[in-house]
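hiii so um. not sure if this is the right channel but i have a protein structure encoded as tokens and i wanna go backwards to a sequence. like what aa goes where. can anyone help
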């Protein structure tokens, strides 16, 4: 195996302004230098357009343009297909996220022993440390198909480095519209199903922005949970779905003012949840009502 792997970093972008520059700067600052960066832009304007013209002069950065019609999987797939022939690994980085300077150096240490390496990201705002499954407990260190189904997507896309041949073997990201906002989770599940070797690094090696003009808002979170359950659990009644999926649906409904607190107690889905999930939803509903 390659003792010094070559990383291809894929950054999809649309009008993220100076957040894009911050993401690219975090790539340029990497202490590990054997990489290329492919930015796939959805015909941004203004600052992004000017910045991309400037940064495309860098010898290790390639800028591609694609009208993805709101399907980010198309942008990521184009990036993967455009990687250097010598590329060993694919790294994903959203254009509103960033990495610490030692991220690739840390990943490279484990590249001969694993096929899929990910790590923790500091969430912005920080309260997502307590609400996102990406930050829950030791159980997340062991990754398997069944654990992903039952625990939800505990893998942050911007933390992922995956062997290129592994991604190609399962057919890249699904570009169907009903996979929007969870095309990454679907890919992780397909990879887990063929028993590739996962490694979670316990270190925080990056920063991820949540909730601001991205797919982590409650509307898309609700859509994601519903579409996931239709595809992976088509014959399940709502109250028999995995707890994370029920929580995602109910908490999103609360945030979108689709359900009142007193009606929650009458729903079988709510009754099927454990204490902590129930407590989070009740607190969320109370805060929503009075603030």
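sure thing!! here u go:
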């Amino acid at each position: 195996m390659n003792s010094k792997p070559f990383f291809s970093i894929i950054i999809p972008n649309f009008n993220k302004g100076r957040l894009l520059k911050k993401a690219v700067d975090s790539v340029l600052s990497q202490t590990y230098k054997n990489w290329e960066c492919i930015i796939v832009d959805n015909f941004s304007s203004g600052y992004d357009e000017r910045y991309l013209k400037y940064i495309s002069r860098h010898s290790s950065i390639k800028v591609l343009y694609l009208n993805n019609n709101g399907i980010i999987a198309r942008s990521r797939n184009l990036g993967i297909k455009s990687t250097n022939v010598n590329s060993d690994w694919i790294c994903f980085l959203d254009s509103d996220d960033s990495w610490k300077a030692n991220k690739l150096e840390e990943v490279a240490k484990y590249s001969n022993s694993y096929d899929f390496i990910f790590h923790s990201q500091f969430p912005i705002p920080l309260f997502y440390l307590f609400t996102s499954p990406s930050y829950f407990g030791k159980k997340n260190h062991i990754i398997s198909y069944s654990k992903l189904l039952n625990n939800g997507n505990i893998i942050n896309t911007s933390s992922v480095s995956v062997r290129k041949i592994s991604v190609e073997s399962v057919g890249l990201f699904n570009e169907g519209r009903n996979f929007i906002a969870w095309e990454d989770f679907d890919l992780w599940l397909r990879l887990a199903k063929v028993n590739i070797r996962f490694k979670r690094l316990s270190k925080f090696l990056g920063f991820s922005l949540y909730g601001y003009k991205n797919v982590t808002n409650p509307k898309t979170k609700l859509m994601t949970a519903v579409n996931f359950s239709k595809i992976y659990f088509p014959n399940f009644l709502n109250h028999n779905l995995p707890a994370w999926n029920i929580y995602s649906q109910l908490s999103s409904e609360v945030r979108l003012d689709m359900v009142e607190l007193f009606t929650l107690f009458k729903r079988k889905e709510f009754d099927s949840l454990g204490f902590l999930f129930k407590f989070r939803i009740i607190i969320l509903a109370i805060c929503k009502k009075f603030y």
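oh and The CA atoms of residues 254 and 285 lie 6 Å apart.
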